[in-house]
Automatic annotation (TrEMBL):
GO terms for biological process: cellular response to light stimulus; chloroplast mRNA processing; chloroplast organization; leaf morphogenesis. GO terms for cellular component: amyloplast; chloroplast; chromoplast; etioplast; proplastid. It comes from the Eukaryota. Transmembrane segments: none annotated. This is Protein PALE CRESS, chloroplastic. InterPro entries: PALE_CRESS (IPR034563).
Length: 251
């Protein structure tokens, strides 16, 4: 009996050591992964890294006001690639720890900040297109197009030669002396430039759509892909409607 008990104890001890070795290997692998995540920002000055971390923490603490906080940070020019990297690192850690709520929140935060950075880097035409698409509330297309027409008229300068050169209210008959032209504004967006850029964008997107046409089945992944494609097509149809509206716009 004693010999049998010793054999069982040795077996249990062996299993325990194997279990501990496995746990230690997993802990070491996790520590190595965290070190790798931390090393990603070594190329940046420590002061900038600290500022980016403080900014990301302010987004997380903002709760329902996160949109306003992000927009103010964008106005101050604080949204950078480093800020995105800090969010990505937090997201990576959350994924490795399987923290589902944190993963969802950080993923949304990453997308929102990335969108704001892309928006700030976009041309005036693309920024206006984004504004027009965001006017749509998902219900009435006719009401949306009327609102877009009004927004376009407010943004595009009139295109007859006189009003393009002289300010509103200028009276040629009552004016005395030399006529000075108003200073050029680099941010002025002409309707023709908007039409050209949106038309080019549509051609690029439609070419990509042709390449990515897939025959989908009815499994969950295929259905999800199909729904994403349908959403893209809806947006393309909206952009086409905006292009038509801008091309035929009359004051």
């Amino acid at each position: 009996i004693y010999v049998e008990w010793q054999a069982n104890q040795r077996e249990r001890t062996k299993e325990w050591h194997a279990y501990r070795q496995k746990e230690e290997a997993e802990e070491e692998a996790k520590s190595s992964e965290y070190r790798e995540i931390g090393m990603r920002m070594k190329a940046y000055p420590q002061e900038e890294v600290c500022k980016a971390r403080v900014l990301v923490s302010s987004f997380i603490r903002a709760g329902e006001d996160v949109e306003k906080v992000i927009e103010k940070a964008a106005e101050r020019g604080e949204l950078t690639e480093l800020v995105l990297m800090v969010i990505w690192n937090r997201l990576d850690v959350a994924r490795r720890d399987d923290e589902k709520d944190a993963i969802r929140s950080l993923d949304l935060l990453y997308r929102r900040v990335e969108t704001e950075i892309l928006r700030s880097e976009a041309t005036p035409a693309m920024r206006l297109l984004d504004e027009l698409l965001n006017i749509h509330d998902g219900s009435d297309d006719d009401k949306w197009l009327k609102a877009c027409r009004k927004h376009m008229i407010e943004n595009f300068p009139r295109e007859d030669p006189f009003t393009m050169v002289f300010p509103p209210g200028f009276d040629m008959e009552k004016h005395d002396g030399q006529i000075k032209l108003p200073p050029q504004d680099d941010d002025v967006l002409l309707r023709v430039d908007f039409v050209r850029e949106v038309d080019e964008l549509l051609k690029e997107v439609e070419a990509e759509q042709e390449k990515s046409k897939l025959h989908t089945g009815y499994d969950p992944e295929s259905v999800a892909t199909m729904l994403k494609q349908q959403e893209k097509l809806r947006t393309i149809r909206q952009v086409e409607a905006l292009l038509e509206l801008a091309a035929t716009l009359k004051w």
